[in-house]
Amino acid sequence: MTVQIILAVLIISMIGRGIFQLTGEKVTYDASDGTGQTTGNREIQADAIGISITTAGKLAVMADGIGKENTGKVCASLAVKEFMEAFSFYKSLHNPEYFFERTMYSVHMNMQKTLEERRGGASVGAVFLADGRLYYAMAGQVRIALLRNGELIPLSEGQTIGVLAQRAYKDGRMSRQETIWSMEDTEIWNYVGKDGFHQMEVGELPVELKKGDLVVMMTKGIFDEVSYADMEKILTNPALTAQEKADRIIRKAEWSDAPDKENGSVMVLLTDGAMRI
Questions:
Q1: What is the CA radius of gyration of the chain?
Q2: In CATH, what number does 36-270 get?
Q3: pLDDT digits (tens, 9 = 90+) for 201-218
Q4: Considering the entire predicted model, what is its pTM?
Q5: What digits encode the pLDDT tens for the residues 6-35?
Q6: How many CA atoms lie within 13 A of 181 on its CB side?
Q7: CB 3.0-4.6 Å disulfide test: which of 19, 91, 213, 215 passes with 269?
Q8: Where are the domains of the chain?
């Protein structure tokens, strides 16, 4: 009798799968987020990433370490670890902006204690997804983008000299020619752990998510080596899981013939049904 029941369940399962295929409905076997990393041309991987899904929602954190030898790696790991630990205490998160600010400054203070006399720090980006909304915060140079309707839409600007110059021009504090001279300057002027750290970039309003949206986070070794057009081709491929998309973006970065490639990390975050456990 037991064998007959098992066979009946298997037959029903196969029939159900066939119905889905005949009606054109896609059967999803992988509902996991995608992550990937490459060391580029560096000796040490100084990026760190983390994802946590709880009843409060989904938190994804990415840190790009700054510093000689293993200093950057230590700083990046500290940032992600502290964000994950802080988030673990929440059963619900009603004020993500406050959480970002409090945790980012706590990371900064602990990072400076760890660094002591050494120079270092980390660019840190954090994304929180809950109840169909996206919230983000970023210090330094982690790119956060939203894939919607086949287009990769940048959300974070980055805290570089070039971006700072563009803001100064809009505010009337810098001439057009001075702005043009500064726009290509990618030096980071603000990051966690730096003396004088005082500001982070926060989304002014939450992004209302739509079905099919993907969120992408990346560090310099990815956005310097892989164009948005190439990423869009990979991310819009319906035959690939989120992990396979992340893997292909990493391979694309590794195929770049740039002589001085940075560490690279990418996270492809699902938004449909992946915000609650």
A1: 21
A2: 3.60.40.10
A3: 888 789 999 999 999 999
A4: 0.78
A5: 444 344 444 444 433 333 333 333 459 999
A6: 5
A7: 215
A8: 1-30, 36-270
